[in-house]
From TrEMBL:
This is Ribosome biogenesis regulatory protein. The gene is gb23364. Belongs to the RRS1 family. Its main location: nucleus. GO terms for biological process: endonucleolytic cleavage in ITS1 to separate SSU-rRNA from 5.8S rRNA and LSU-rRNA from tricistronic rRNA transcript (SSU-rRNA, 5.8S rRNA, LSU-rRNA); ribosomal large subunit biogenesis. Transmembrane segments: none annotated. Residues 66-91 are annotated as: Disordered. The lineage of its organism: Eukaryota, Viridiplantae, Streptophyta, Embryophyta, Tracheophyta. Keywords: Nucleus, Ribosome biogenesis. Involved in ribosomal large subunit assembly.
Amino acid sequence: MTDPIAATSNYEVDLGNLMAYDPSHHVTAAASNRAELREACLQKATELAQAVADVLFALSPNEDRDGPIVRLPPPATRLPREKHLPKPKPPTKWEQFAKMKGITKHKKNKREWDEQTKSWKRTYGYDRVNDDRDIPIIEAKATDEPGVDPFAQRTEEKKKRVEKQEKNRLENLKRAAKVGALPSHIQLAAKALPITGIKADLPKKSRKEDLESVAGMASTATASGGKFDESYLVRNLQSILANIESFSLWLKEKELVAKRNSNMTKS
């Protein structure tokens, strides 16, 4: 195994980073002018680059069809990161409540036992356990109102739950925008907010309408750019019907012209 830091003459070379430095470097005298300082820096850089090249070409290469290949040792010098550390996201309303009440999150199983089909099914998603669409009969309760469709009622309740979840999500985004820790992957195009998440770059307050607008645009975004959405299909169908109607009028007009020409020929 090659030493990650190789010493050559007075320099130490870190081949993992292709870097060399002089641990005993010291300036004898201050440069009198800028040209002298530049010349000294170029001379030192040339010596360091030559030291890296000497150690690099001393490694044993492996033959490949594209030519000799040298495997570098792992880097030994830890370089500082370019970007600052990401800021922690502010806790949501539920996370604050769970922390106050001491509620811990448990990992849920991906599959559960379905008593109706006597088989293991997914907890969520397609073919999930206790799916409302798989229940053919719903038992009536004493509290049920007469004449109410239980299947439609379940659909309406699910719709309300989804709306409530969306409302809570927007509130969390609004709260995060106020403290300046909005997630970097969310860009509020309605107010041209930056995606850096820096508090200084954010406006003082984000309106609920702006958040709803951006959330609506994100929920309706598709890979086709909306080409195959329902609204596009409706407009396309209307255009087709208009073309058919104009084509029918053209056929009728053509028949009338042909009939008039036929009558003129007979007379």
